[in-house]
């Protein structure tokens, strides 16, 4: 429950205060005008007569999450702001600049307040939005959680991260640094897609690549972005304590974290992080803004897939800070021959049942070629749902796409593969990872036959899951596949 403290009650403050009681949480207005106090109380607004700049009065007030400095006079508001910041260092402060600010006043307000309401640019409605919106409340809570971290924070992306995960991790690490918490954007696996590598290299993003089994003792806290559970699509211990989760995917089970922000309506986690940066009043770093916009564009397929008004608003917020020349360089990297080979093998090996196509790309060196192959299958005549998978060492990586209104790929892949691996995603875009331990124990002359059986199992389970939606998966392939995927050397 958010506690809002209003210091002073001038014209702009009065316009806002009458609507504040409708918001969740506690409210207290402090003003020297006894008539205003009486009027507010008649309107059921909690109010106290007193000097908003008096240190002894501020000392008597419970610590608020948000302070609104709302008098008319610039000099009084500045003094109230200075003393409120000293008394409540961790609070979010929104300060009204007043009518006659000097350059020195503006500098002081910019330094001490999280948000400054300038009378030349904003009226009561803008103040109301800045102090009572759901994004403002979320930013307040995130700030509190971050400021409670004592030590270094690891902001962990999902394995082999995509642009949305990379940009979100960089943005959250930057937010943490802005409140005095040292933070590293971290990931396991590889950044192998040529566009993803271009994004990291051209923008000069500072990421840490963690090795499997690497000690994490240097980190005192952990945050997850673009996924929500440790040990699921990352290589963290499943029982690791998580401090912050920010994601836009629907969760599959409980989310174990102190602070959780899941925005299933958002098309990208980058959209959510853009909102946080805006609410924190942070200056938009050019590289981070460019990465966030690219993350939104990729995850929403250029604002055509699972897009919301929030995604457009975030893009509009980011656009003035984006390096458009760099963005074009990221979006147009050279296409590697290996990627073209993967796409060609998928097209050649495809099996189609009705409007659904599935294909094995065989042994691959770049798992990020799979979604490109799935997208390419989707462009073929008569196909509205596609799945492509490939083998790297003892793992099978799966990527699926759909434009059919009656298909939920996230649920279909979970139904098909959750018992033999990890799977999930959205209705029109999903993926899975399956471990095949038996390949490591097989002789060279056995591998081809085993791979052939695995390909058949994956293809059949996928078609079966699509055909049985909605409902539970049919178990005709369960016994064969579970034995195959769980078999270990010597068993």
How would you describe the overall organization of this protein?
This protein is of the alpha/beta class. The chain folds into three domains: about 5-130, Rossmann fold (3-Layer(aba) Sandwich), CATH 3.40.50.720; about 145-330, Alpha-Beta Complex (inorganic pyrophosphatase (n-terminal core)), CATH 3.90.1640; about 335-485, Roll (Diaminopimelate Epimerase, Chain A, domain 1). Helices cover about 40% and strands about 20% of the residues. The chain is built from 19 helices and 18 strands. The chain has helices at about 10-15, 35-40, 55-60, 75-85, 105-110, 125-130, 135-145, 165-180, 195-205, 270-280, 285-300, 310-320, 325-330, 335-350, 370-380, 410-415, 440, 445-465, 480-485; strands spanning about 5, 25-30, 45-50, 65-70, 90-95, 115, 155, 185-190, 210, 220-225, 245, 260, 350-355, 355-365, 385-390, 395-400, 420-425, 430-435. The strands form three sheets. The protein has a six-stranded parallel β-sheet, sandwiched between helices. Strand 8 (about 185-190), helix 9 (about 195-205) and strand 9 form a beta-alpha-beta unit. Helix 8 runs parallel beside helix 10. The longest helix is centred in the last third of the chain and has 24 residues, at about 445-465. It is elongated and about 90 Å long. The model is unreliable at about 440 and about 470-490 (pLDDT under 50).
